[in-house]
Design a protein that fits this description.
Blueprint (H helix, E strand, L loop, with lengths): L6 H17 L5 E2 L2 E2 L5 E2 L5 E2 L5 H4 L7 E6 L10 E8 L2 E8 L4 E8 L3 E7 L6 E16 L3 E6 L3 E3 L4 H15 L1
Antiparallel strand pairs: 1-2, 3-4, 5-6, 5-12, 6-7, 7-8, 8-9, 9-10, 10-11
């Protein structure tokens, strides 16, 4: 993994990555246009990710396990964003990253409509709410009405690398504290 040399370069890369994610349709979309979901105040002035009702959150969206999604269907493509994350009972921990760059950890929940997470900037240690729409991939539908959920704007990638698992382990350890 290659790290950028200055804090300003890393900060700018992070900002560019978030902007690229939003522009490429990774944020909560509406009719094919990308929008970042609204922030909701938690009462003390801090922003919190939008939460779905308990009834909606209790439905299993993605089976418990580890997932890799990328803007490119091929792993390790320069300029493409990726998300590696684990799911347990609709809760998730993972990382957003670009190939050959740093990564930012996140944790949150998965609902039938979105992946709603709080992303921790790896350099500034600031937390920002973020959401990515979930859609059902018609080509992957199996059985009677059972669809395969995917992150909008991403392709599911079956081959998870050792580097992906390493990033995930770092994020899981960070959120376990």
């Amino acid at each position: 993994m290659t790290f950028l040399s200055s804090a300003s370069q890393r900060t700018q890369l992070f900002k560019n990555a978030l902007l690229a994610l939003a522009v490429c349709g990774l944020a909560f979309p509406s009719a094919g246009t990308a929008q970042v979901s609204p922030e909701v105040s938690n009462g003390n002035g801090a922003a919190a990710a939008h939460r779905q009702s308990p009834q909606t959150a209790s439905q299993t969206v993605l089976e418990d396990g580890t997932y890799l999604f990328g803007q490119s269907s091929t792993p390790d493509q320069m300029g493409s964003a990726y998300a590696i994350f684990s799911v347990k009972n609709n809760r998730t921990v993972g990382a957003f990253y670009h190939s050959h760059s740093s990564f930012d950890c996140f944790s949150g929940e998965i609902t039938p409509n979105q992946l709603a997470v709080n992303v921790v900037d790896s350099y500034e240690q600031t937390v920002r709410p973020y959401s990515v729409a979930l859609t059902v991939e018609d080509a992957l539908v199996a059985g009677e009405g059972v669809g395969a959920y995917i992150l909008e704007g991403f392709h599911r990638i079956s081959g998870i690398s050792a580097n992906d698992y390493d990033m995930l382990a770092v994020c899981q350890a960070d959120f376990a504290q």
